[in-house]
Fold Phosphoadenosine phosphosulfate reductase.
Amino acid sequence: MTTEKSVRHILSLSGGKDSTALAIYMRDRVPNMEYIFHDTGKELPDTLDYIERLESYLGTRVVRTTTRETFDDVLRTKGGMLPSNKRRWCTELLKLKPFEVYVGDESCINYVGIRADEDRVGYVSHKPNIKAVFPFREDGIDYEGVVRILDDAGLGLPPYTDWGRTRSGCFFCFYQQKIEWVRLKQHYPDLFEEAKAYEKPNRVNGQLFYWGDEPLEDLERPERMAEIEENWRKVQERKRARRPNRPLVSVLAGLDLDDGPRNGCLICQL
Ligand code: SF4
């Protein structure tokens, strides 16, 4: 792999397992790598801890980029319209733009942690000075390879997987499954409350948006949470029956980390 001085080498971390494993994998291969993390200001404490642990392992600082306008500032300009799958302004303004601003006009190689067992494209900047490369794909590193890299480095999987969350990114990310909302409430009730507080009519125009198809006020009712837990458990049983050779690590964690294309935002959750 070339490391010419005139070209910058940049690895953008999400706080997820794949980009973290890639940082570990590239540490000795590209000594002048710049590691960056775009902090939306709404990250889970677990993600921030994981990034700090990675810094210790790498022996170098991960640059935190932020935007002048916070999530709440942008939300105000949008009249309280929460982001969603169809209105994903958050990724563009809080993740993609800071990346392009950070890179500027200099030539850069952008290292992306898409694995060999994944069939997806990922974020590729359209700026001509940014060239994306996919070392895991090139070197045949799959899900199990990523887990091995993380274990060998002593980091393991991101800490939020311990309580059943599958994704990095904002604690209120609309991509999370209902079971992940339930677990957010159980493990970070204050963050759940903060997410719920966004589901109020906008003070200026009265518009009301929800993070998902069900208000969090409804989802948090004990009987509804029990129902979500039960549905999730049945789905897991069916999946286990269909795939008896599922990797042990994901069985133990009760997670779908190894499932095919993930429903989510690649740049936030890689
Ligand atoms: S994690 Fe989710 S809510 Fe946060 S910026 Fe990414 S897509 Fe938007």
